[in-house]
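This protein record is not my work; I was only asked to verify it. The record follows directly below this note.
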Amino acid sequence: MKTIRKTLLAALLVGASALTSLAQAQDFKIGIVNTDRILRDSNVAKAAQAKLESEFLKREKDLNDAIAAFKQSAEKFERDAPTLAEAQRVAKQKQLIEQDRDLKRRQREFQEDLGARKNEENQMLFEKAGRAVKQVAESEKYDLILQDAAYFNPKHDITEKVIKALNASVGK
């Protein structure tokens, strides 16, 4: 009889503990943020992209023009090579090799500069997004915000709220 009472008492304690945990879990508020959407859909991200495009547009156009001119020179050399004197042909070939080397260097520098600027802009965007996430979490009393979960119930997705908060902070 005493063993049954002890077992029953233990079961009641476990049940009460489980109910308490369940009640606490219901108060636990979780949100999920999709960073890809923030990087794609927020006005801050679009402004950063436009800024980068305007900053590098002229340089990219100049580089593309130089590449097109080099291709034309190379094609002209291929056509004219059989009729050129040996010294002219060798000089023109060296010139084209030097131009090709210069163009590749300029392309590499362009890509490195563009990549560095993209990283700078993304870093600023992530900082602003982090502040927006914190603002939403504090104002709506979230206990936990996760980023880019493999799966989540859409009712926990607060990405749109974060994007709105981020867009609202643009003027500030």
